[in-house]
């Protein structure tokens, strides 16, 4: 950190480079012969793809995790998921605290940027709280999953599977070891299992709410009236998306993928497929068998994604809410953007529009590059592109068919989706210093 401070690198650039470094280390480890069950090295591009998918908590794979990777390789993947979910800077800060080293202002600044904290003050205390909560939630999740896995797989294997899938679910990664039943099957074998489904769903939701929301709820308990505006927006939009998404998925798929299920299984599956597409990547139905309406719904949920400062991706729930409320304000002919009796800061709309614009531009570029690279169905290409840039991990199956160039495109999309499209652009481009303002002139819009 001290050497980075000397060359005057910004907190955003540190985060961007830090994730790239972790991905590179992971790719080197996964390309080693010991990482594969057959003790043969996999191509470095495929190792880089897997490392990026794990670190960026996406879940897109070119190999089935259970079938291809040895215990060493699986442990590398789950470590990358944990580091990627919490953020490498948070892991670094915890190491500094454990070694009793002083955490300076520059480190606190990077840490605040990493967890999307409102201010630098109290960020170290927030880090400790996040770590403790993460350990508790993942442990409880693992305990619940072990209740089902241990009788089926034995004590040691069951505990290992429970820990792996608890971390993967909480970090919204979507990696699984269900290849022991059938490669690339995800959680379809547990489609009717209430315990597995609700445990995974709860972990996904908790990981996707965001660290700032956790902290706010812990400090203000269940007093909703006293929550920060950010927390209120996140909770409201999350509940709406879960319920609305489940209802729409049921309507779209009741005569298709849900047709042969019992009523309770239809409800659970609809809820699961409403929650998972918002960056988790697990699936309990065949993605390739969805109707056009079901596929389109999942695409919309992938685009929206989770909330800021969470383990998930997408353009974020708060971004969508700011744009919607700005639209309402314009229709009502009011100057301010108001929600929950609060006025949003003037820069909020500009940042939200920038996030959406950059997201759309990168998605379009990714779609075009994949179409040019290979002759694939346009629906599958769009689905895969959105899944990558939103760090979701759901796939119609074409990821394994992509050539080297197309896989590099997906790698870049996953990377930009995890560090944040706006963050990545900001880190790369040099900001111009404010100068004189140009003359104002009107442009006709709409």
Automatic annotation (TrEMBL):
<feature type="transmembrane region" description="Helical">
    <location>
        <begin position="408"/>
        <end position="430"/>
    </location>
</feature>
<keyword id="KW-0472">Membrane</keyword>
<keyword id="KW-0812">Transmembrane</keyword>
<feature type="transmembrane region" description="Helical">
    <location>
        <begin position="75"/>
        <end position="98"/>
    </location>
</feature>
<dbReference type="Pfam" id="PF02386">
    <property type="entry name" value="TrkH"/>
</dbReference>
<keyword id="KW-0630">Potassium</keyword>
<dbReference type="InterPro" id="IPR003445">
    <property type="entry name" value="Cat_transpt"/>
</dbReference>
<keyword id="KW-1133">Transmembrane helix</keyword>
<feature type="transmembrane region" description="Helical">
    <location>
        <begin position="155"/>
        <end position="173"/>
    </location>
</feature>
<keyword id="KW-0406">Ion transport</keyword>
<protein>
    <submittedName>
        <fullName>TrkH family potassium uptake protein</fullName>
    </submittedName>
</protein>
<keyword id="KW-0633">Potassium transport</keyword>
<dbReference type="InterPro" id="IPR004772">
    <property type="entry name" value="TrkH"/>
</dbReference>
<feature type="transmembrane region" description="Helical">
    <location>
        <begin position="12"/>
        <end position="32"/>
    </location>
</feature>
<keyword id="KW-0813">Transport</keyword>
<feature type="transmembrane region" description="Helical">
    <location>
        <begin position="194"/>
        <end position="213"/>
    </location>
</feature>
<feature type="transmembrane region" description="Helical">
    <location>
        <begin position="313"/>
        <end position="331"/>
    </location>
</feature>
<keyword id="KW-1003">Cell membrane</keyword>
<feature type="transmembrane region" description="Helical">
    <location>
        <begin position="352"/>
        <end position="372"/>
    </location>
</feature>
<feature type="transmembrane region" description="Helical">
    <location>
        <begin position="233"/>
        <end position="252"/>
    </location>
</feature>
């Amino acid at each position: 950190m001290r050497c980075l401070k000397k060359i005057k690198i910004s907190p955003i650039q540190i985060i961007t480079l830090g994730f790239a470094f972790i991905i590179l280390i992971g790719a080197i480890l996964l390309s080693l012969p010991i990482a594969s069950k057959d003790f043969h090295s996999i191509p470095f591009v495929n190792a880089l793809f897997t490392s990026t998918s794990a670190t960026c908590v996406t879940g897109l794979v070119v190999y089935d995790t259970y079938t291809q990777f040895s215990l060493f390789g699986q442990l590398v993947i789950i470590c990358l998921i944990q580091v990627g979910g919490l953020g490498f800077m948070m892991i670094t800060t915890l190491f500094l605290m454990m070694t009793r080293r002083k955490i300076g202002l520059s480190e606190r600044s990077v840490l605040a940027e990493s967890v999307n904290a409102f201010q630098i003050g109290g960020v170290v205390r927030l880090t400790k709280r996040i770590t403790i909560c993460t350990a508790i939630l993942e442990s409880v999740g693992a305990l619940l999953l072990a209740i089902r896995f241990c009788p089926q797989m034995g004590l040691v294997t069951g505990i290992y599977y429970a820990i792996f899938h608890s971390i993967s679910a909480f970090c919204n990664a979507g990696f699984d070891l269900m290849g022991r039943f059938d490669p690339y099957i995800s959680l379809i074998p547990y489609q009717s299992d209430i315990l597995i489904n609700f445990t995974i769903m709860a972990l996904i939701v908790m990981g996707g709410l965001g660290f700032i929301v956790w902290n706010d709820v812990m400090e203000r308990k269940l007093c909703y009236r006293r929550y920060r505006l950010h927390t209120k927006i996140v909770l409201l939009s999350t509940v709406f998306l879960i319920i609305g998404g489940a209802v729409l998925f049921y309507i779209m798929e009741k005569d298709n993928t849900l047709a042969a299920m019992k009523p309770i299984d239809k409800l659970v599956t609809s809820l699961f497929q409403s929650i998972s597409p918002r960056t988790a990547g697990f699936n309990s139905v065949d993605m390739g068998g969805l109707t056009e309406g079901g596929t389109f719904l999942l695409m919309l949920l992938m685009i929206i994604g989770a909330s800021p400062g969470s383990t998930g991706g997408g353009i974020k729930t708060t971004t969508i809410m700011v744009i919607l409320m700005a639209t309402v304000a314009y229709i009502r002919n009011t100057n301010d953007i108001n929600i929950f009796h609060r006025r949003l800061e003037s820069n909020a709309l500009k940042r939200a529009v920038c996030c959406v614009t950059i997201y759309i531009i990168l998605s379009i570029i990714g779609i075009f590059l994949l179409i040019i690279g290979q002759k694939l169905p346009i629906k599958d290409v769009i689905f895969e592109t959105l899944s990558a840039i939103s760090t979701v991990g759901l796939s119609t199956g074409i990821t394994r068919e992509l050539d080297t160039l197309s896989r590099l495109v997906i790698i870049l999309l996953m990377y930009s989706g995890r560090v944040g499209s706006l963050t990545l652009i900001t880190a790369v481009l040099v900001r111009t210093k404010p100068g004189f303002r140009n003359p104002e002139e009107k442009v006709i819009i709409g």
